[in-house]
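Friendly challenge for the regulars: who can give me the structure tokens for this chain first? No prize, just bragging rights.
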Amino acid sequence: MIGIKVLQHNANRQAAAHHTLLQHAFESKAYVVLIQEPYCPGGRKDSYHTVSHLSFYTVLPMPILGSLRPHVMAYVRKKDGLEFTPRYDLASDPYWQVLEVFSGPESFFFVNVYNEKQRLSRQGTQT
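First reply, four minutes later:
Bragging rights claimed.
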């Protein structure tokens, strides 16, 4: 089994934080980047865009209808022999995503979760 360097960060919807994290991941040779609250400015009412990097595949959570932007996003380094597949059958929500990574004969999962404290406390007070 190979060693896999992973970076995880909450970008707080800030472009500078998102770009800096990807550049740091590139320079430190990280294989996987897991971001919560990625930078995704809205364009039209039913779309958004995000940051890309030439050295990474961008992996979005399950495509969603409407204007709800993703709260998690992953990046996987290109050209390092690491194969992956998003597991939309296990997670179809903008607040979490599952990636299955294949390393030789075995596979394992990365689960990227955003736990919005405000949203959870509002749900807990409903009757």
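The chain has a mean pLDDT of 83. The beta strands are 6-10, 32-36, 56-59, 72-77, 83-86, 96-103, 106-113. Your move, everyone else.
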